[in-house]
Amino acid sequence: MFSLLYVCQLCINKPVTTPCGHTFCLKCLERCLDHNAKCPLCKDGLAQVNQYFFLGWIGLLELKERRRLHEEEMEELSNLNKNVPIFVCTMAYPTVPCPLHIFEPCYRLMIRRCIETGTRQFGMCLGDPVKGFAEYGCILEIRNVQFFADGRSVVDSIGKRRFKVLHQGQRDGYNTADIEYIEDQKVQGEDCAELMGLHNCVYEQAASWFHSLKSSLKNRILSHFGPMPEKDADPQINPNGPAWCWWTLAVLPLESRAQLPFLAMRSLKDRLNGIRRVLAFISRNQN
């Protein structure tokens, strides 16, 4: 039998030793560090210690087996169709920045796994009081993360692709989903010419509305979302539609529930007509 000195005092499995002399298993220690960057027993700071420094008493065979299991887990977590991590919070759109302030340990773990797997991606969905979270969402890509010693994280992310939720699940305290990606349906011929005219018209309408805002409000929008994207020469070149459409939806004063149907639309024409109606309604109220 092993001495208690050489077993994890949290789960009695896979011992590793911290610089302060306490023994745990690597998985338990990682999970504790997601909550607080201190030794679970003596509270000595471990924030600046790389996890692979914890080498403790471990046999070569056990280390090889652990690596194999870790690689299998990373491969499973890298799948961006099944068991995709879902952050249940706010609306997110393709091409639009989405800064996040994270303090829940489960989401800190989720973000760390997204970085470890190399995908740097997770799904964002609105909460739903009945279903748990909305049926449609947007994949976000992590551009940068700042981790703080008190457990908080600031994540700089940007929208990539839209998806539909096929099945909901959970993993280690955060939500997951099996998903399918959705794209706009392309049109041709006369329908394409009509779409081009509508696209140009609504773009000018959106730009005019934005320029009519007070300077203080415009500056807040610019600092958060950046400038309005340029009009695309071909509005169907991107499977998610023109970037300026998503930027406009992000800055319009609409409740999240009113924005969600736009994310699910596979018709650019319908999305443009919807934006046009919203802009006309807002302009009438302003006048």
From TrEMBL:
Domain Lon N-terminal: 74-283
Protein name per UniProt: LON peptidase N-terminal domain and RING finger protein 3
Keyword terms, alphabetized: Metal-binding, TPR repeat, Zinc, Zinc-finger
UniProt-listed SMART domains: LON, RING
InterPro entries the record matches: Lon_prtase_N, Lon_prtase_N_sf, PUA-like_sf, Znf_RING, Znf_RING/FYVE/PHD, Znf_RING_CS
UniProt-recorded Gene Ontology molecular function terms: ubiquitin protein ligase activity; zinc ion binding
PANTHER family named in the record: LON PEPTIDASE N-TERMINAL DOMAIN AND RING FINGER PROTEIN 3, RING FINGER PROTEIN 127
Organism, as annotated: Marmota marmota marmota
SUPFAM superfamilies reported in the protein's UniProt record: PUA domain-like, RING/U-box
Sequence ranges assigned to domain RING-type in this UniProt record: 7-43
Entries under PROSITE patterns matching the protein: LON_N, ZF_RING_1, ZF_RING_2
One Pfam family named in its UniProt record: LON_substr_bdg
